Amino acid sequence: MADIDTPAAKRAHRRKALAGDGRLAEAPDATAIPAWTLARPPTINDVARLAKVSKKTVSRVINQSPHVHDATRAVVDAVVARIGYVPSPQARGLAINRSFLLGLIYDNPNAQYIVNVQGGILEACHREGFELVVHPCRQVAPGFLADVKAFIQRQNLDGVILIPPLSEDAALVALLRAIDCPYMRLMSVPLDEPKAMVLHTDRAGAAEVGAHLAQLGHTQVALITGPQRYRSTLERREGFIGALAERGVSVPESWILEGQYTFESGETRGMELLTGPDRPTAIFASNDEMAAGIYRAAYRLGIAIPRDLTVVGFDDTPLSSRMCPALSTVRLPIHDMGRLAADRLIARINEGDAGSAKSKTSQPLTVTPRLVVRESSAPPPA
């Protein structure tokens, strides 16, 4: 121990740290680590040899174990970065009884919604070392629950993310709880514990549309809703009609038509509204796909947007700003919702889903849609 009291020994000691297996790891020096030149890819054994620690310590660092000194972790991380080592997901999962796989389960006809939410989930997965497995299904199909259960168990998923309308299915959520599968739900109403939801306040977003149209002076207003089995359909309808009613504008029942959140249903319903004995001066479509269908119907009938007809959508997908004229719509941050759901789910998985009252993973996650006014909005024709 006396040798450590010398200045040189103290400096050397500061450059070392106790590794997870009791061995000393030198402080990282990237220039001293040889570049990888062999034809085969580097292995965990190569990392351990170059870092001068055990294979078990490398595994602990890769799996983000707290039982490794910071300096040792820096050594291993430097070696991993220098030689380009990529951990085997299978080996990593076996080491801690995890698959590092998340599932996205959906029954949703809106392809753009799926793309956007999937992009957000993948952003979180790539950052945290997880992979995403996507499973489309039919909620009304016989054996739906058995199919979902088989998918989760076959893939050995660490957790799943549900989007509407599956996120609103009580029987599916009961199944996930029964098989002890962590989950996150994207929802427009709070039907679960805060830790298990990303809540988007669709009612408030739709209310902004109602206020916007009333402010422009529209009194002949129509609504194309989503499918009735979606809770978002009710939330958007009630928010929109309620905001108009507060401003003295009513929407005739004959001008409230159900769509399917698809382009085709938007065009069909748009034709019905625009070819009747009276026609509205403004239509609120409950998503951008249906709004695009209304554009098509108006084009076929020679109705100019926004001179003759104001159209407003919901979601603010990339399509909305590329339409001509650019579509006024409610911005629902779908990509961010997917990322938030995946971040929360991974955090819960990493902490064993303990979810204490003071845990960050037990706090509410809420996003608020906002109206984006573009070229498709105008006062009613004189």
Task: Itemize the secondary structure elements and their pairings.
Elements: H1 7-14, E1 16-18, E2 24-26, H2 44-51, H3 55-62, H4 70-83, H5 89-96, E3 101-106, H6 111-128, E4 131-136, H7 144-155, E5 159-162, H8 170-178, E6 183-187, E7 197-200, H9 202-216, E8 221-225, H10 231-246, E9 256-258, H11 263-274, E10 282-285, H12 288-301, E11 310-315, H13 318-322, E12 328-331, H14 334-350, E13 366-367, E14 370-372
Parallel strand pairs: 3-4, 3-5, 5-6, 6-7, 7-13, 8-9, 8-10, 10-11, 11-12
Antiparallel strand pairs: 1-2, 12-14
Structure description:
The chain has helices spanning 7-14, 44-51, 55-62, 70-83, 89-96, 111-128, 144-155, 170-178, 202-216, 231-246, 263-274, 288-301, 318-322, 334-350, and strands at 16-18, 24-26, 101-106, 131-136, 159-162, 183-187, 197-200, 221-225, 256-258, 282-285, 310-315, 328-331, 366-367, 370-372. It is α/β, with parallel strands linked by helices and 382 residues long. It folds into three domains: 2-95, 434 Repressor (Amino-terminal Domain) (Orthogonal Bundle); 99-200 and 335-368, Rossmann fold (3-Layer(aba) Sandwich); 202-331, Rossmann fold (3-Layer(aba) Sandwich). A six-stranded parallel beta sheet has the order 4-3-5-6-7-13, sandwiched between helices. It has a six-stranded mixed beta sheet with strand order 9-8-10-11-12-14, with helices on both faces. Strands 1-2 form a two-stranded antiparallel ribbon. α12 links the parallel β10 and β11 (310-315).
Give the tally of structural domains.
Answer: 3
Strand order of the largest sheet: 4-3-5-6-7-13
Give me the number of helical elements: 14
What fold name stands as the CATH topology of the largest domain?
A: Rossmann fold
The value of Rg in angstroms is: 28 Å
Q: Look at the structure and name the CATH superfamily of the largest domain.
A: Response regulator
Taken in chain order, the helices and strands follow as: HEEHHHHEHEHEHEEHEHEHEHEHEHEE
Low-confidence stretches: 9-24, 353-357
| CATH architecture verdict of the largest domain | 3-Layer(aba) Sandwich
Beta-strand segment tally: 14
Mean pLDDT: 87
Shape, per Cα inertia axes: elongated
- Largest pleated sheet: 6 strands, parallel
Helix content: 40-55%
CATH class call of the largest domain = Alpha Beta
Head-to-tail CA distance between termini: 94 Å
As a percent range, the share of strand residues is 15-25%
